[in-house]
Amino acid sequence: MANYMLSGLLLLLSFAFLACNSENEEDILPGEELCQDNTATLSGAVSTIIETNCAVSGCHVPGTGRVNFTVSENIIQNATQIRKLTQAGIMPPPELGGSLTAQEKMDIRCWVENGAQDN
């Protein structure tokens, strides 16, 4: 009987270990805790990311029919969508050579989760 209990305990611990190792920090910590120390602002990191990767010729600039991200109000109004698409790796389009670093994605995520303010 003791062998069965020991085997069961070892099996349970193995599953717990594997479950903990298969999750990354973003899955474990809610955004609020992840972004607690990230002070990304629109006028700082976020505008630089947008200007470099989104508000470029042929993309989110006047005359393209897309949302114009050279205007701060448009960025703020579309903050949630920007977050979703950048976190998913859809924007900037990888097929056009676009990509963001993990830090850039985190800055956008945290700016949005901290209220997407015009700061």
In short:
By secondary structure, this protein is mostly helical. The chain has helices spanning 2-21, 25-28, 31-34, 42-53, 72-77, 79-87, 102-113. It is globular and about 40 Å long.
Characterise the protein shown here.
The protein is an all-alpha fold and 119 residues long. It has one domain (34-119). 56% of the residues lie in helices and 0% in strands. It contains seven helices and no strands. It has helices spanning 2-21, 25-28, 31-34, 42-53, 72-77, 79-87, 102-113. Helix 4 (42-53) packs across helix 7 and helix 6 packs antiparallel against helix 7. The longest helix is centred in the first third of the chain and has 20 residues, at 2-21. The radius of gyration is 21 Å and the shape is globular.
SSE blueprint:
Elements lengths: L1 H20 L3 H4 L2 H4 L7 H12 L18 H6 L1 H9 L14 H12 L6
Low-confidence stretches: 4-29
Let me know the largest β-sheet.
Answer: none
Secondary-structure element series: HHHHHHH
Estimate the global geometry from the Cα principal axes.
globular
Summarize model confidence as the mean pLDDT.
82
Give the radius of gyration. Answer: 21 Å
Give the fraction of residues assigned to helices.
Answer: 55-70%
Distance N terminus to C terminus?
A: 65 Å
* Count of helical regions: 7
Roughly what fraction of the amino acids lie in strands?
under 5%
- Strand tally is 0
Our count of domains comes out at 1
Tell me the structural class: mainly alpha
